[in-house]
Design goal:
14 helices, Protein-Tyrosine Phosphatase, Chain A, 3 domains, six-stranded parallel beta sheet, six-stranded mixed beta sheet, UDP-N-acetylmuramoyl-L-alanine:D-glutamate ligase, Rossmann fold
Length: 458
């Protein structure tokens, strides 16, 4: 049961979905947003009490927060915000929209299992794979969360399975999550402008294992293992990795196969997604799908046809033997490292590969440490072309860096340098908001620039 006095903190698509959820249950909430004109404001009924703009010392008036019995906060609002801390101290419960979904899925009259997926990189790919596997198996599945569909929009009377991509921000306000299976795909530095340390960020991610029936960790990343403070003996644990254990890889019939408990399932060569990091994503999806009761037949059918998500190690074009790859979603160093490592072991180029890899990077660094790129600059990269707000930090890493002002200049410079067998990878290692509205717009710009190069070359 929802209380009568609810405050929705943060509007936009998610806030509107929470509003509709409340109104459908006869509750008229208060709406608050620190933006003077938040997206979706024009859709609010006149009867809704609202507080918009920089109204308080920290951007939020305290009185409406303290008057609420329940605050449903946007993931973009840190719980450490002073006004929210005062509300918590006063006994006000603060949750997110995902928590409302979790509670709706665990009613006594209807139990809907949840597959929960987090990690620094690969979340959307694995979430999409598991969702498509479930649909292939005839399961009525809802896929959403951080992947772009508000969680509450997944609720239908026929829902049989929920697959959720969850950010660390969402996990902070989802205390009741008890997933059928949960995974942390990997951990690398990200959002250190919000968390006080990598350990703080990591531990927030690891909270997804709390109360899960099955925990699925990455053997290639020790930071994803279930910590002792979560009482791992209380539930089952399995893992995925690049060796032959559990969900892994084995040699069979002269080639490498994805495997389950040492038994071959699918030749790696049959995957249409690039890189060893995507092989790990496929293995994680298999492990989660098994826990959801999805048949191997359905899993294999999806893995054979899945070509990947846009802006995630996406093949754009090959011209004169040069492969162009768009990984605009690589908004942190870990994602860029994974893309480089994957491409170093996986090529679509039709001509013999000369072994040179050109990286385009830059944007908003979010307080990250870029030093893990140094080894690659000295070993695997011909050069790194740097643009954007924090390009100076990238340029300082090694001698084989080149400064440009825009992505247009970066693409043109790489086109002039690359020769047959080379790969040009756009994996910025940074957020996009210094120059673009989001990583999608940044990726689309890269694609258009490459396509324009190809037209000029004809």
């Amino acid at each position: 049961m929802l209380p009568e006095r609810i405050l929705i903190l943060g509007l936009g698509q998610t806030g509107l979905s929470v509003l509709q959820y409340c109104l459908q249950r006869g509750i008229t909430p208060v709406v608050m947003d620190t933006r003077s004109r938040p997206p979706g404001a024009e859709q609010l009924p006149d009867s809704i009490e609202r507080y918009f703009g920089e109204l308080g010392q920290g951007g939020m008036p305290l009185a409406p927060l303290l008057a609420a019995e329940l605050i449903i906060a946007s993931p973009g609002v840190p719980l450490a915000t002073p006004e929210l801390q005062q509300a918590l101290a006063a006994g006000v419960e603060i949750i997110g929209d995902v928590e409302l979904l979790v509670r709706a899925c665990s009613r006594d009259d209807k139990q809907v299992p949840i597959i929960a997926i987090t990690g620094s990189n690969g979340k959307s790919t694995v979430t999409t794979l598991v969702g498509e596997m479930a649909a292939e198996a005839g399961i009525k599945v809802g896929v959403g969360g951080n992947i772009g569909i508000p969680a509450l929009e997944l609720l239908t009377t026929e829902l049989e399975l929920v697959v959720l991509e969850l950010s660390s921000f969402q996990l902070e306000t989802t205390p009741s999550l008890a997933a059928r299976a949960a995974t942390v795909l990997n951990i690398s530095e990200d959002h250190l402008d919000r968390y006080d340390s990598l350990a703080h960020y990591r531990d927030t991610k690891l909270g997804i294992y709390q109360s899960a029936e099955q925990a699925v960790y990455n053997r290639e990343d020790d930071q994803t293992q279930v910590p002792t403070w979560l009482s791992p003996s209380a539930y089952a644990i399995t893992s995925f990795g690049l060796d032959a254990q559990a969900y892994g890889r084995v040699a069979h019939d002269g080639q490498l196969w994805l495997s389950r408990a040492g038994q071959p399932v699918l030749p790696v060569a049959d995957l249409k997604i690039l890189g060893t990091h995507n092989q790990l994503n496929a293995l994680a999806a298999m492990a989660l799908a098994d826990q959801a009761g999805i048949s191997e037949t359905a899993q294999v059918a999806v893995l054979r046809r899945f070509t990947g998500l846009k802006h995630r190690c996406q093949f754009v074009a090959e011209k004169n033997g040069v492969l162009w790859v768009n990984d605009s979603k690589a908004t942190n160093v870990g994602a860029t490292l994974a893309a480089i490592d994957g491409l170093a072991n996986d090529s679509l180029a039709s001509e013999p590969k000369a072994g040179r890899l050109w990286l385009i990077a830059g944007g908003q660094g979010k307080g990250q440490d870029f030093s893990p790129l140094v080894g690659l600059l000295n070993d695997k990269l011909a050069a790194m072309v740097c643009f954007g707000q924090d390009r100076a930090q990238l340029l300082a890493l090694a001698a084989n860096t080149h400064e440009v002002q825009t992505l247009d200049e970066a693409v043109a410079w790489c086109a002039a340098q690359a020769t047959a067998g080379d790969t040009v990878l756009f994996a910025p290692a940074c957020a996009s908001l210094d120059m673009y509205g989001n990583y999608q717009l940044r990726g689309e710009h890269f694609i258009s620039l490459v396509e324009a190069l190809l037209v000029e070359a004809l």
